[in-house]
């Protein structure tokens, strides 16, 4: 079947041909399902999933359905792992472990911001196989920003190359951290290691936009304590291809397949990543 992926090499070929098609579909999903609902939600349009900060709207559901259909058709033989589908059927997350190419989708990352009518939300899509992320798309429609990355080919924001660079010497490291509601006691203790001289931690917003801030050099690092692949896959490749890196508290790269030692960091450069991991480990 045309478009079927058989090897990681043909994933690269697929991306060379179809990366712009993926971008077009993401823009279409936002135009049809997300932006018409932005700042127009009523109370009945917002549901709570696992807690007061874990919200879902019709924009999340309908955009994911659209992308699931269209991305699956674009790459026959692939599967889609989306946040809302996994909430309905947790076993569907297991597809990330297999050999089949997987689209990892967060239809509205930053739903709390979306519900409040703020601009800090985005759609995240990544294409992975065997735990390796090959393509990344981050679209913030309210800000008209579109970031992309292809493994080995660099990262771009609105067509311009992204370079994370390194923090300015002598300045406090700007680090976005997990929301306290989503951390265990052990993870809270680890994150407390960042409350020290030379670091300026703050709670994170949309994970996808926090990764974009690192890739742009606007933020120095993130320190996150959860593994949901839809929040991290696109952003981690974006940071990597912008010249940054990521490490778990065990000193290993984060993997979307799970089993990571948390918290973990993604940072503008290796020295920053190792500094953050050192602080996270010292407090445990």
UniProtKB/TrEMBL annotation:
<protein>
    <recommendedName>
        <fullName>inositol-phosphate phosphatase</fullName>
        <ecNumber>3.1.3.25</ecNumber>
    </recommendedName>
</protein>
<feature type="binding site">
    <location>
        <position position="83"/>
    </location>
    <ligand>
        <name>Mg(2+)</name>
    </ligand>
</feature>
<keyword id="KW-0460">Magnesium</keyword>
<dbReference type="GO" id="GO:0046872">
    <property type="term" value="F:metal ion binding"/>
</dbReference>
<dbReference type="GO" id="GO:0006020">
    <property type="term" value="P:inositol metabolic process"/>
</dbReference>
<keyword id="KW-0378">Hydrolase</keyword>
<dbReference type="InterPro" id="IPR020550">
    <property type="entry name" value="Inositol_monophosphatase_CS"/>
</dbReference>
<feature type="binding site">
    <location>
        <position position="109"/>
    </location>
    <ligand>
        <name>Mg(2+)</name>
    </ligand>
</feature>
<dbReference type="InterPro" id="IPR020583">
    <property type="entry name" value="Inositol_monoP_metal-BS"/>
</dbReference>
<dbReference type="InterPro" id="IPR000760">
    <property type="entry name" value="Inositol_monophosphatase-like"/>
</dbReference>
<dbReference type="GO" id="GO:0007165">
    <property type="term" value="P:signal transduction"/>
</dbReference>
<feature type="binding site">
    <location>
        <position position="106"/>
    </location>
    <ligand>
        <name>Mg(2+)</name>
    </ligand>
</feature>
<keyword id="KW-0479">Metal-binding</keyword>
<dbReference type="Pfam" id="PF00459">
    <property type="entry name" value="Inositol_P"/>
</dbReference>
<dbReference type="GO" id="GO:0046854">
    <property type="term" value="P:phosphatidylinositol phosphate biosynthetic process"/>
</dbReference>
<feature type="binding site">
    <location>
        <position position="231"/>
    </location>
    <ligand>
        <name>Mg(2+)</name>
    </ligand>
</feature>
<dbReference type="GO" id="GO:0008934">
    <property type="term" value="F:inositol monophosphate 1-phosphatase activity"/>
</dbReference>
């Amino acid at each position: 079947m045309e478009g079927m992926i058989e090897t990681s090499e043909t994933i690269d070929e697929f991306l060379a041909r179809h990366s712009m098609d993926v971008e077009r579909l993401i823009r279409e999903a936002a135009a049809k399902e997300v932006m018409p609902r932005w700042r127009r939600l009523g109370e009945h349009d917002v549901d709570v999933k696992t807690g007061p900060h874990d919200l879902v709207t019709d924009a999340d559901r309908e955009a994911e359905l659209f992308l699931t259909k269209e991305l699956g058709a674009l790459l026959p033989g692939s599967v889609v792992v989306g946040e809302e589908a996994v909430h309905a059927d947790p076993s569907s997350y297991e597809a990330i472990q297999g050999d089949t190419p997987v689209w990892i989708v967060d239809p509205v990352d930053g739903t709390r911001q979306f519900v409040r009518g703020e601009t800090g939300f985005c759609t995240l899509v990544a294409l992975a196989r065997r735990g390796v992320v090959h393509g990344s798309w981050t679209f913030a429609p309210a800000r008209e920003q579109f970031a992309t990355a292809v493994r080995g080919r660099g990262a771009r924001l609105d067509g311009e190359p992204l370079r994370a660079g390194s923090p300015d010497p002598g300045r406090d490291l700007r680090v976005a951290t997990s929301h306290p509601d989503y951390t265990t006691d052990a993870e809270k203790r680890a994150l407390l290691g960042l409350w020290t001289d030379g670091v300026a931690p703050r709670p994170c917003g949309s994970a996808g936009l926090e990764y974009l801030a690192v890739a742009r050099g606007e933020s120095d690092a993130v320190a996150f304590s959860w593994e949901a692949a839809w929040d991290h896959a696109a952003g981690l490749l974006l940071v990597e291809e912008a010249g940054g890196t990521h490490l778990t508290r065990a000193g290993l790269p984060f993997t979307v397949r799970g089993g990571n030692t948390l918290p973990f960091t993604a940072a503008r450069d290796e020295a920053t990543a190792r500094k953050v991991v050192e602080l996270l480990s010292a407090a445990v």
